[in-house]
Amino acid sequence: MTAAAIRNWQGVQDEVRRRIATRLWRPGDFIPHETELAREFGCARATVNRALRELAEEGLLDRRRKAGTRVALNPVRRARLDIPIIRDEIEAQGRACRHATLSRALAEPPPDIRARMQTEAGAELLHIRTLYTADGAPYVLEDRWINTRAVPTALGESFADLSPNEWLVREVPFEGGDFAFSAITATASEAAALGCAPGVGLFVLDRTTWSGGRTITSVRLVFHPGYRMHTRI
């Protein structure tokens, strides 16, 4: 890649990746300062800064204030996780998606959810349990808590046309979140919803998202037996 070909931060990122992959810059090596790279690539320093920041977040670079930027000694490969719209996931398989609300209420969450949502004792949240099906077969059971102080419009939403998952992804911007993955054995309630026997192993995803210093929602997704998650690094 020539300097003339670099016009954006993605181009800078690609060239830095190439230099690391070809060992022009070896693990532990300090790379040139942002001003030098900006001059070489013929772009703004801010463009270089963004490219290096993204690569540091991926684990390829180690950036330390006043110490410079070096190629990571032990690069960390990080998986990319998106927050999917369940309907899109099902329809991508060529199957028809339906969702049904199993229960809906304003309620005080249990202590573990309250801690995750960072709400005070006695505060009520919107609690919704939704079953998603694919071609009529149970696909995933969603147990969701919504902070109505952060998302007051959720109180007036029926979620008849758009599921809670799809409505929140489309309507409520978020800044960050966390994921936790686990395996459980199906309780009687989960088995009844997912059409399996109690005690069957199930894949579970717990996710919390937040924005503006407030937690928006916490959700547990319990998938049908045999479900597999795919991601990339």
Kindly summarize this structure in a few lines.
The protein has helices spanning 9-21, 34-41, 45-58, 86-91, 111-117, 164-171, 188-194, and strands at residues 61-64, 68-71, 97-107, 125-134, 137-146, 176-185, 201-211, 214-223.
Verbal overview:
With 233 residues, the chain is of the alpha+beta class. The protein contains 7 helices and 8 strands, in the order H-H-H-E-E-H-E-H-E-E-H-E-H-E-E. It has helices at residues 9-21, 34-41, 45-58, 86-91, 111-117, 164-171, 188-194; strands at residues 61-64, 68-71, 97-107, 125-134, 137-146, 176-185, 201-211, 214-223. The strands form 2 sheets. It has a 6-stranded antiparallel beta sheet with strand order 3-4-5-8-7-6. It has a two-stranded antiparallel sheet with strand order 1-2.
List keywords for this structure.
single chain; 233 residues; alpha+beta; Arc Repressor Mutant, subunit A; Chorismate lyase; six-stranded antiparallel β-sheet; elongated
Rg from Cα: 23 Å
List low-confidence stretches. none
Largest sheet strand order: 3-4-5-8-7-6
Q: Kindly, what is the distance between the CA atoms of the first and last residues, rounded to a whole number of angstroms?
A: 24 Å
Largest sheet: 6 strands, antiparallel
Percent helix, as a range, is: 25-40%
Order of helices and strands: HHHEEHEHEEHEHEE
What's the CATH topology name of the largest domain?
Chorismate lyase
What name goes with the CATH superfamily of the largest domain? Answer: Chorismate lyase-like
Strand tally is: 8
Give the oligomeric state of the chains in this entry, treating copies of one chain as homo and distinct chains as hetero. Answer: single chain
* Binned strand content: 25-35%
Q: How many individual domains? A: 2
CATH second-level architecture of the largest domain: 3-Layer(aba) Sandwich
Average pLDDT value?
A: 91
Look at the structure and give the CATH class of the largest domain: Alpha Beta
Note the total helix count: 7
Basic shape:
elongated
Structural class: alpha+beta
